[in-house]
Amino acid sequence: MSDGLIVLVGATGILGRAFAQRLPARRLVKLGRADLDPADPVAIRRRMIGLTPRLVINCAADTDVEGAESAPERAFAVNATLAQALAEGAAETSAAFVHFSSTGCYGDWKSGSYVESDPLRPTTAHHRGKALGEEAVLRAHPEALVLRLGWVFGGIRGQRRNFVWARIQEAQGKAEIGADPRQLGSPTAAADVAAQTIAVLGSHQTGVFNCVGGGAPARRLDYVAAILEAAGSPARANPAEFSRRAPVSSNEAADNARLRACGLDRMPPWRESLAAFVRSQLDETPAECVPAASPQPACADARALCLG
Ligand SMILES: NC(=O)c1ccc[n+]([C@@H]2O[C@H](COP(=O)([O-])OP(=O)(O)OC[C@H]3O[C@@H](n4cnc5c(N)ncnc54)[C@H](OP(=O)(O)O)[C@@H]3O)[C@@H](O)[C@H]2O)c1
């Protein structure tokens, strides 16, 4: 597979950083909020056509779940309008397109883990925007790859939305910190998502896949306890009530059913990836440099596409 540019949108975010670490710098064009105005989709498409990339990876999102309840149009602009314009530009230039959605889009109607064939019944403005975003992307670029993610962890120390580092900091000097005992989800390492995405691209599969950390889903309380344990913190995670403006689903757990059915599921158990990530944070080693699992074979095409 020939060389070509890879456009990475949202490279400063938790997930974008994980991709930036993995992809060859010489082929990478990073675009952020200063480069793309969701209010001007024509300019976005023109930008894509000017670059004629081989692959576009859209990690940009408005991830302020609480804020979206009062300003849904702002979230919608990034999560649906921008995503659609990028997908249209990619389709026009015959570039592959990768977009990320959320397992929170399934809603709150099942007790077990959601699979890809389950209907989306989002309960928050944020997740309604994300669900519309996936739909718009697949309409604009029917060959797009859409990965629905769980509770993503990654990034650098102190970075906004670095949940793991924030909990380690919160526990400093305390005997206990509070965490929700009822909310269920699938913790997911950003570094693992980047590796998994590259593997799926190599398989030429398209459409929607759940992509969450392996192992049993966790209550938020157990997730926080696992963070503290991995960090060697003496603090305990205790059940606590959190009042949230956004009616977030109490079950965001998902199963990588389609990845498994395609023989592509390479997501390591989240507890292993979490332990590796916590070590990397404490060592001040960039998280993305710590492989959560050994390199996977069967990625020859993907390497040509992304790493060649
Ligand atoms: N984090 C999670 O737990 C989670 C869960 C499920 C799904 N996801 C999905 O995973 C993907 C990556 O999320 P993340 O956790 O990496 O989010 P993040 O850390 O909040 O990063 C979002 C990125 O989008 C950029 N961005 C925001 N508005 C933009 C605009 N108008 N134009 C261009 N770029 C813009 C941000 O730029 P600035 O640095 O300038 O703000 C940042 O680089 C998203 O699709 C998200 O919905 C995340």
Structure description:
By secondary structure, this protein is α/β, with parallel strands linked by helices. The chain has one domain (6-241, 250-307): Rossmann fold (3-Layer(aba) Sandwich), CATH 3.40.50. It is built from 11 helices and 12 strands. It has helices spanning 14-22, 41-51, 65-70, 72-92, 125-140, 163-171, 190-203, 220-230, 257-261, 270-283, 300-307; strands at residues 6-9, 28-31, 55-58, 96-102, 145-149, 151-153, 176-179, 184-185, 187-189, 207-211, 218-219, 236-239. The strands form 4 sheets. A 6-stranded parallel β-sheet has the order 2-1-3-4-5-10, with helices on both faces. The chain has a two-stranded parallel sheet with strand order 6-9. The chain has a two-stranded parallel ribbon with strand order 7-12. Strand 4, helix 5 (125-140) and strand 5 (145-149) form a beta-alpha-beta unit. Helix 2 (41-51) packs parallel to helix 4 (72-92) and helix 4 (72-92) packs parallel to helix 5 (125-140). Mean pLDDT is 92; it is low at 287-308. The site of NADP nicotinamide-adenine-dinucleotide phosphate has 25 residues, from helix 1, helix 4, strand 4 and strand 6.
CATH superfamily: NAD(P)-binding Rossmann-like Domain
Write out the distinct hetero groups bound to the structure: NADP nicotinamide-adenine-dinucleotide phosphate
Intertermini distance:
8 Å
**What's the structural domain tally?**
1
* Tally of separate helices: 11
> How many DSSP E strands?
12
Within the CATH hierarchy, at the fold level, what is the topology? Rossmann fold
- Biggest beta sheet summary: 6 strands, parallel
Overall mean pLDDT stands at 92
